[in-house]
Amino acid sequence: MNELPAIEVVYDALNALYHNPDPISKERASQWLGDLQKSIFAWKIADQLLHVKKDMESCYFGAQTLRTKIQFAFHELPSEAHNSLRDSMLNHLRQINEHTNTVIVTQLCLALADLLLQMTSWKTPIQDLIQTFGPKNNFETTHIWPLLEVLTVLPEEMGSRTLRLGANRRSEVLKLFAGSTENVLHLLDSCLTIPSSDRLIGVRLLRCFSSWVHLQAVTLHQLTSCATLGHVFATLSSHHSTPLLHEAASDAVCALLQVVADQENEDNTTQNGQLTSTLNELRTLEDSLVQSIKNLEPAYHLAVAEEDTEKALNYCRVFTEIAEALLHRMLESTKNNNGTMNTSNLFGLLDLVLTCVGHHDYEVAEITFGFWYKLSEDLYHANDDDRTIKFKPYIERLIGAVCRHCQMEPDHEGVLEESDDFAGFRSRVSELVKDVVFIVGSASVFKHCFYSIHGQNNLPWEVTESALFIMQAVAKNILPDENEVVQSVVESLLQVPESAHAAVRFTTLLLLGELGEWMDKHPAVVEPVLHCVLRSINDPSLAVAASNSLEAITSICRDHVKSHFDILLQVVSALVTLPIPTETAVRVVKGVTKVCSRLPDHQIADALHQLCKIHVDELTRICQVENQSKVVAKTSSDPVYWLDRLASIFRNLSVNAKKSEQHPCQLAITFTWPCLSMTLDKFQTDRRVMERCCRCLRFALRLIGHQSAPLLQPLVTQMVRLYNAHHHSCFLYLASILVDEYGSENDCIGGLISMLEALLPRAFQLLQEPQGLSHNPDIVDDLFRLFARFL
Predict the structure, then answer these.
(1) Backbone torsions φ then ψ of 2, nearest 5 degrees
(2) Rounded (10°) angle between helices 442-453 and 461-474
(3) Can you give the pLDDT at residue 275?
(4) b/e code 648-681 from CB counts within 10 Å (16+ = b)
């Protein structure tokens, strides 16, 4: 833009942008206005628009333009123009009244804040703003709104990455803020006594307080003597506080508690056994905060009684934040616990947090999870049993409370969908329990949950299921030689009738799977558990749980289920009909493969052949279909569906074969090769299929090593042909596997070098194209690996 446009032209463009129904006109107007904002003329145009105040759209555009120019193009103005810009900005703020649009006010205040941060010649900006816009003797409050808004966004803009303040300027501004905190706090205190018709003035005041506290420029002494802090707690305690005001007060307390936490984490040392003055001030503030926050408990219970979940969430945030802020002090107090009131007060914070965990809404309880993670982490690293045991009663209450939260609705039918929000919450509960259970002991939790439901014939199904769910979370930690309760648990689980609620049966199956290591040491229960799982696997609602349990049993207890290999083969064959994720099916194949590894040597070859044949037959059928458009990813028509299963077989089979004897897996791999070769040819343009096929071949080659030599010539020939046609880098990776396996064989070296010579021209051709290296990172990686293997 080469010349200053007339103001009428700007109005026309804005009118087209906001009101013209023609999308092409809108696009042109948007482009033109964007160019205007980038030009040097934007300064003057924005100022004019704000002075004229024709309509809301033009005022917003003017304010937003001014903010953008100050933020990104302040360097365009000569230093002698800074004062003029500041005065103009202040004049615009003076025009704000209760009818001014909030978005415009925000933009103007952000613009002034960015100007203040960059204008080095303005030496006392905050004092000037307070003197200009602060309340006067006549209690004029018109300008308090923009004043509080500017003071709120100032500390926030300090952390803005788009505002390119140098380190020296940041340091200067921080000193300026530190020297102005007394003025700001005095302003906030004085605003408390001024009547105002603006219902949001209280919210703005608290947000301003939070912003300055978060900046950490306010001293501990200033905080303890600040009337606004008392007002914050009065607001939190008041039954009549509006939701916005209550949330702002909660944010203010949380900001303050973050400062306390940061101070606690600093190296506050003592001098000659006495607290330093700073630490003494910190302790005084902390003790005051503890008492003030404890006094909020009745207000929390009132919010619960009135089903005001928003306020309950706010209280929970505050209770959790102070517990986390003082966690270090709480832990230190356990070193020499003499029953002092101070230690009792600190541990009373845990009671507050647990009160929130008991809230009927699980979203309130979940707010506390971060604190419990932090507590468990600190106790784990401290590795002090005497300290840990003091927290045991609180963790027992925590686990009991989250167990109740995990109860489904009594009228819920079927099992929870994985995408359900409540299922997500239960998953997070499971992770939390696993993290904290060492404090109370897994066996203790396991027994407590079991005894709470054992023999209770009339117990609601959802209570039983939630107890089993918590038991499942800790079951893997149960020692394999445990002989007190697990036997009874397994027997009870095997007696769960088919008429039981589907969710109870689902969790029962998952729990049985988690007890795999215990069952491996107690083989008498393996067969009945296997039969229980196999009976359930064809039930659509239980198939996922049964499959997961089957994978665990076959992987861990493989020595005890090898006599059932024929039945397991039937399960593998039927996997395609089960409503389970592909990943789950692959894990089942993995478990059955591990059972195959435990068969007698003379049976492995035939067993593996049968296991592979299930997948080879399906792959062959897919390759014989003429129309590839019928291939649907992640279904049984997708070759990847079967290639991943084959890869799982070759990857997880573990056989000790003598080099002088034929490898028991060689025949199965030789049988599989024609199908894999056909797949490579049929889907040669599909990179995803090529990668999975090469992955399958990689595990097959690794499995039988040098005994794959008969496949070497046809494999290399096909690899070279397909790579030169479609340059899939996975062939380079597979070539490196061949070098690794056969590089030490003198008879193979010539063939491997010929393979390299055949692959390199096409690879180098791709890398020599414009941006070749950056566009083909996989080829670069795989070539480097291939060269390294040759060397």
Answers:
(1) -100, -15
(2) 160
(3) 54
(4) bbbbbbebebeeeeebbbbbbbbebbebbbebbe
The CB-based long-range contact list for 242-250 (8 Å cut-off, 24+ gap) reads 242/199, 243/310, 243/311, 244/200, 244/203, 245/202, 245/203, 245/206, 246/310, 246/311, 246/314, 247/310, 247/314, 248/202, 248/203, 248/206, 248/207, 248/210, 249/206, 249/314, 250/314, 250/315, 250/317, 250/318
Task: Determine the Cα–Cα distance for residues 329 and 332; give it in Å rounded to an integer.
Answer: 5
Decide: helix, strand or coil at residue 526.
Answer: helix
For a pLDDT cut of 70, what percent of the chain falls above it?
Answer: 97
Q: Which residue has the tokens 């925590």?
A: 398
Mean of the per-residue pLDDT values of the chain: 92
H-assigned helices in 627-686: 639-652, 666-682
Contact assessment for residue 612 and residue 636, using Cβ atoms and an 8 Å cutoff: no
- For the segment 114-148, what is each residue's pLDDT rounded down to a tens digit? 999 999 999 999 999 999 998 875 455 668 899 99
Predicted confidence at residue 140, as pLDDT, reads: 59
Domain with residue 424: its CATH number is: 1.25.10
CA of residue 641 relative to chain centroid, distance:
29
Domain boundary among the residues 540, 566, 598 is at: 598
Residue tagged 């061949």 (tokens): 738
Identify which of 467, 464, 509, 466 has the alpha carbon closest to the alpha carbon of residue 490: 509
Hey, is 486 helix, strand or coil? helix
Q: Residue 638: what residue type?
A: D
pLDDT in tens, 484-507: 999 999 999 999 999 999 999 999
Structural domain including 490 reads: 401-598
| Residue 553, both tokens | 């049993």
Q: Please tell me the distance from the alpha carbon of residue 221 to that of residue 462, in angstroms, as a whole number.
A: 53
Give a three-class secondary structure readout of 261-308: HHHHHCCCCEECCEECHHHHHHHHHHHHHHHHHHCCHHHHHHHHHCCC
C-alpha–C-alpha distance, residues 739 and 752, integer Å: 7
**Are 153 and 117 within 8 A, CB to CB?**
no
State the DSSP string of 241-260. --HHHHHHHHHHHHHHHHHH
Count how many Cα atoms sit within 13 Å of the Cα of residue 686 in the half-sphere of its side chain. Answer: 17
Q: Compute the average pLDDT of residues 267-278.
A: 54
Q: Are 28 and 18 in contact (CB under 8 A)?
A: no
Q: Which of 390, 422, 456 is the last residue of a domain?
A: 390
CA atoms 750, 756, 759, 761: torsion sign: negative
Same domain, yes or no, for 513 and 462?
A: yes
Q: Which two tokens stand for residue 690?
A: 């090529």
Q: Are residues 295 and 338 in the same domain?
A: yes
Q: Which residues pair with 270 in a beta bridge?
A: 275
